Amino acid sequence: MAYIQTVSLEAARGILRRVYDQALRRAGRIYQILRIQSLGPETLRASLSLYLSIMHGRSELSRAQREILAVVVSRTNECHY
Q1: Which residue in 22, 14, 64 sits closest to 41, CA to CA?
Q2: pLDDT at site 80
Q3: N or C: which end of the chain has fewer CB within 10 A?
């Protein structure tokens, strides 16, 4: 398994700490997909903003349909998270 350096919650400061705190409020935990982007807090914030817009923004697709598409894409890409 590859090793990717990450920033822990305890060490997070500034933008990263705010993103982590929002994740904790939203999901009750900080998922690895966020942690692996922790060395680039600005990029993480932009990535998260895009994700939230796609999954929760206005769309002709229902939330359930969007989740199903996400699962299909993850499965196709052999992602196991």
Answers
A1: 14
A2: 74
A3: N
